[in-house]
Amino acid sequence: MTEGMGCKNCCSICLQCLFGYETNVMLVINNKVHFYNNIQYVCWVQRAYQDTDSVISSVSTKVKGNILTNSSAAGVHVWDVPEYVIPPQGENTFFVLTNVIPTLGQRQSKCPEIPSEVTKCESDSDCKEGYSEVHGNGVQTGRCVQYSDTIKTCEVQAWCPLENDTVIPKPALLGAAEDFTVLIKNNVQYPKFKFRKRNILHHINSTYLKNCTFDRKTDPHCPIFRLGDMVTEAGEDFSVMALKGGIIGIFIDWNCDLDFPERFCIPKYSFSRLDNKNPENNVAPGYNFRFAKYYKTNESTETRTLIKAFGIRFDVIVFGMAGKFNIVPTIVNLGATLSFLSLVTAVCDWVMLTCMKDRDLYAKHKFIHLNQNGDSVPLVS
């Protein structure tokens, strides 16, 4: 009797497997984990329906301003653009002089070296003729000479008098350079879309250009920038930065959606300090270099003025990406998205049935058996 019942049940199961039909049940769950909505949002925001191109850019700059200085070393002096913008033209960069240590009237002659552990001496035997110390100022003559009343150093053949850069002028000699302005002309193009534009927009005329200065609220499209304003936006104090110099980045963002009219493609400006300003590692701070101005005296002796220049270098960094509708990436990304969404269904089911605290409730409604009497019975109790 028992064997007969078992055989009957086995046959019933086999028939159910052969003739049973499975169909999907749509289960709507109100939960904070909206996988589908997130996926759709990402696909739209990423603009998968667009073809893209990277920006190609050219930059030119023109600085304007004058400063009158009066120092003990150089006397009264008017600084104009050819003197404080070095070099006159740079590649996407320009340098503005803010502080100087001048050494006047240098000539080729012999003089005592600046005191250091290597150059101090007691007698000629401590100096080596023809020796050039890497961090020194010239070539030793072999003589030990008086540097001051109490110090002797090795004599060198060099440009004398030697530079003494231990004391940096405070406040910065050209601190008023914060009121200088710079015109930045930026031309960009997206070759794939045959799109060209410049940061001097269509509505800007010559009258406006002569009188405007960039301001985020009143003149956000003016291409003329006050140096002090850029340094301030970078989170720095111009008077402090002018002492030893530094590097400021001028960022021009040309990200454009070319499915919209051309007038909506406009540059966005931002500023940041690029050189290291770590108080815990303040070795060799700022930005400086040396250059010389040469001339001849009435005796035809070659003479020069050596200048150790401190200043702020401004790097203009242009970046951007343009997108425009194209049927090819639209089809490709649509197919990829649909394939991905089919995978998301399986992932969602696994998460709901495994990880969520109401997984038993989800399983009860997810798997339902419909018998011949029309009654639906959950497969999971």
TrEMBL record:
<feature type="disulfide bond">
    <location>
        <begin position="212"/>
        <end position="222"/>
    </location>
</feature>
<feature type="disulfide bond">
    <location>
        <begin position="256"/>
        <end position="265"/>
    </location>
</feature>
<keyword id="KW-1071">Ligand-gated ion channel</keyword>
<keyword id="KW-1003">Cell membrane</keyword>
<keyword id="KW-0675">Receptor</keyword>
<keyword id="KW-0813">Transport</keyword>
<keyword id="KW-0547">Nucleotide-binding</keyword>
<dbReference type="InterPro" id="IPR053792">
    <property type="entry name" value="P2X_RECEPTOR_CS"/>
</dbReference>
<feature type="binding site">
    <location>
        <position position="308"/>
    </location>
    <ligand>
        <name>ATP</name>
    </ligand>
</feature>
<dbReference type="GO" id="GO:0001614">
    <property type="term" value="F:purinergic nucleotide receptor activity"/>
</dbReference>
<dbReference type="GO" id="GO:0005886">
    <property type="term" value="C:plasma membrane"/>
</dbReference>
<dbReference type="InterPro" id="IPR059116">
    <property type="entry name" value="P2X_receptor"/>
</dbReference>
<comment type="function">
    <text>ATP-gated nonselective transmembrane cation channel permeable to potassium, sodium and calcium. Activation by extracellular ATP induces a variety of cellular responses, such as excitatory postsynaptic responses in sensory neurons, neuromuscular junctions (NMJ) formation, hearing, perception of taste and peristalsis. In the inner ear, regulates sound transduction and auditory neurotransmission, outer hair cell electromotility, inner ear gap junctions, and K(+) recycling. Mediates synaptic transmission between neurons and from neurons to smooth muscle.</text>
</comment>
<keyword id="KW-0406">Ion transport</keyword>
<comment type="similarity">
    <text>Belongs to the P2X receptor family.</text>
</comment>
<dbReference type="GO" id="GO:0070588">
    <property type="term" value="P:calcium ion transmembrane transport"/>
</dbReference>
<dbReference type="InterPro" id="IPR001429">
    <property type="entry name" value="P2X_purnocptor"/>
</dbReference>
<keyword id="KW-1015">Disulfide bond</keyword>
<feature type="binding site">
    <location>
        <begin position="288"/>
        <end position="290"/>
    </location>
    <ligand>
        <name>ATP</name>
    </ligand>
</feature>
<feature type="binding site">
    <location>
        <begin position="62"/>
        <end position="64"/>
    </location>
    <ligand>
        <name>ATP</name>
    </ligand>
</feature>
<comment type="subunit">
    <text>Homotrimer and heterotrimer; functional P2XRs are organized as homomeric and heteromeric trimers. Homotrimer. Forms heterotrimer with P2RX1. Forms heterotrimer with P2RX6. Forms heterotrimer with P2RX3.</text>
</comment>
<keyword id="KW-0472">Membrane</keyword>
<feature type="disulfide bond">
    <location>
        <begin position="121"/>
        <end position="144"/>
    </location>
</feature>
<feature type="disulfide bond">
    <location>
        <begin position="127"/>
        <end position="154"/>
    </location>
</feature>
<keyword id="KW-0812">Transmembrane</keyword>
<keyword id="KW-0325">Glycoprotein</keyword>
<feature type="binding site">
    <location>
        <position position="181"/>
    </location>
    <ligand>
        <name>ATP</name>
    </ligand>
</feature>
<keyword id="KW-1133">Transmembrane helix</keyword>
<feature type="disulfide bond">
    <location>
        <begin position="111"/>
        <end position="160"/>
    </location>
</feature>
<dbReference type="Pfam" id="PF00864">
    <property type="entry name" value="P2X_receptor"/>
</dbReference>
<comment type="function">
    <text>Receptor for ATP that acts as a ligand-gated ion channel.</text>
</comment>
<keyword id="KW-0407">Ion channel</keyword>
<keyword id="KW-0067">ATP-binding</keyword>
<protein>
    <recommendedName>
        <fullName>P2X purinoceptor</fullName>
    </recommendedName>
</protein>
<dbReference type="GO" id="GO:0005524">
    <property type="term" value="F:ATP binding"/>
</dbReference>
<dbReference type="GO" id="GO:0004931">
    <property type="term" value="F:extracellularly ATP-gated monoatomic cation channel activity"/>
</dbReference>
<dbReference type="InterPro" id="IPR027309">
    <property type="entry name" value="P2X_extracellular_dom_sf"/>
</dbReference>
<dbReference type="GO" id="GO:0033198">
    <property type="term" value="P:response to ATP"/>
</dbReference>
<dbReference type="GO" id="GO:0098794">
    <property type="term" value="C:postsynapse"/>
</dbReference>
<dbReference type="InterPro" id="IPR003045">
    <property type="entry name" value="P2X2_purnocptor"/>
</dbReference>
